[in-house]
Amino acid sequence: MLKLAWPLVLTQLAQMAIMTTDVVMLGRLGKVALASAALGNTVFFFTWLIGCGPVAAVSPMIAHILGERPNDRAGVRAATRMGFWAVLLLSVPLVGFLLMTRHTLLLLDQTDELATNAGVFVSALCWGLPFSLGYQVLRNFSTALSKPNASLWVMGLAIFFNAFGDYALIFGHFGFPKLGLLGSGISSACSYAFSFVAMVVVVQLTPSLRKYRIWRRFHRPHIEKLWEVFRLGMPIGMTMIFEAMLFNSATLIMGTFGTAAVAAHQIALNVPSITFMVPLGIGMAATVRVGLAAGARDGEAVRRAGWLAIGMAVAFMGCTSILIWSFPDRIANLYFANAAANADVIRLAIVFLHVAAVFQIVDGVQVTGALSLRGLKDARAPMWIAGASYWLAGFPACLLFAFGFGLKGLGIWIGLAFGLLVAAATMCLRFWYLSRGR
Q1: What is the number of domains present in the chain?
Q2: What does the DSSP 8-state code read for residue 340?
């Protein structure tokens, strides 16, 4: 598990390093730019999750194929090819939706200034969506074949590519124009394109991956595999959307409390998002290990892989909980060059970070539990569990504490913690129920 998980964890942290670079550099432009980018990323991430659902199905599909028939190259190739087909089918409507970001945010009662700036940001960022999804197909392909280092090297290079692009295009260095928010969007889109191209090169240069010849007969459809990509992938996508959009909806509600609340929420959300990458990477390894065991019909290995992943997540997130609780002020100050000018944002961020520290463990448990279930190709039940946990428990709790008890931003974060607690308990119960009978 560790051999497969650690490159995945580092890859996830590298992706967060890219996002954190964007947040820190935009923070130098002020809280309006930071809040606008937060709203823009909310809309972009929603569309990305829709496309990422079918893409995420590639990994468990390949794991089951190899667990049952270790030398089935044609099956692996067909599953990967249909993952790319899904990207092509979904990208056109999703990019079209992203180009309407300003109007979408105005309909959601955001201020004209924030909606306009977010629209400018996303108008450039949206062109990176197909490349980002294509990269995820290749990443899931290499991970299912127990070659996670391929995506790790690519993400390591992408960190420097994105940092250079942000520095050059946001602030106008190295002879480039000073584009502010638009520059950040262009830089991120180019980073997605770079990551995809680099991943293609890595796959072609790695003998154990190249032998599957995933580009062979790319034009040929495989209806059964394409149907499975969407049948398994759409519930996976909805599961991720239910969770992510709870947090993104919280961002939109924060917008009604003012710019300082949105900026503080973005900072406080960025920190647990970084720590979340570790159990997410562990969970992705669990998907492969559980899938291989399920394909081989080894019930004991299924149980061992799933519970081990959950235990590893608890151990790591317990440590991060202590760190965030102990140093929230120092963490919040990292995001601003002039702390005094943004004292209102930092004060709110410290309050939110205390709540984030409390829900660290349950956040790790729910994601490793969900990804262990994904390894069993159990997608529909986790979708309903996520929907009920986040929208029948978490979201009403956000509204109750924020508006009913008048806690505003703090109330929203309490509601988020409650939703994660319900999800963690029910995902673990579901995995116990399914794995005990294998």
Answers
A1: 1
A2: G
